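Page 47, continued from p. 46.
Same chain as before, 270 aa.
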Amino acid sequence: MKVTSSLLLLLFLVATASTSRTAAIRLYFNDSGTIHTLQQNSSHSHYTAHNIFVSNGSTLQLTNGASITAPASVDDGESAVRIDDATFIGVNGTIIGGANFGGIGVTISSSRDNPYYGSSNASFGAGMAVYGGDAARSETTQGGDAVQVIQSGSRATFDGGTIVAGRGCSREVCGVSNTNGNAIKVVMGEVIVKGGMFDGDFYNLQGSIAVYGCVAIIDEEDGQRRIKGVLSDGNVIDVAYVGKEKQLEIVYDESVCPPPAAVAAPTIAD
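Result:
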């Protein structure tokens, strides 16, 4: 067989592409009623280039500093962790959406034809950090959402944690705000925010978002609507809200409001 220079070049390019890309691993937890725990002191504590799927009434708990990072390719799945008719308990750990293409950190969903429909729940504690994947100009311009809830009957509860939207790109530079992802995106379903630190918008299409604390909805001069104040866990929140106001509930808690500024007594001249 005669090997031409063009064939050699083609073989080299294929080999280079296949070796430079990290192999993706899909991990499934789908056994009803079973609790699976990923933790730092287990045999696998850092799940790199993984897509993890939790379904059919199974429960996944992330604790003790374990981390999950999605692969940097949309072909391997858009979410680092996907919860379908199942439960996720985030105690202490890190989840990162796929880089380059703006992957999603965590997706919570339900299926109407599934016997576990209506039972998709995800909770995020103070030790959790979830990041949407950053975009790259060579792949996409849109940053990834950190957490998204996409079906009725699904719920995400934030008692704490750090939730950061993926950075988007323009043709000139990355980090442009109007191409960034969302910290929280609700297509349908329910989100409850009692604590945490959020970097990115709250986007609500047809679901509901309830925010607990000494907070208010502020209409800015530039037309933005923002949620500002102190959450029930004491963290300050200042995020843009995109959606209908009637789908946003403020559960006011005066006990976490900062004390009023002291006012000096007037001086009486002699």
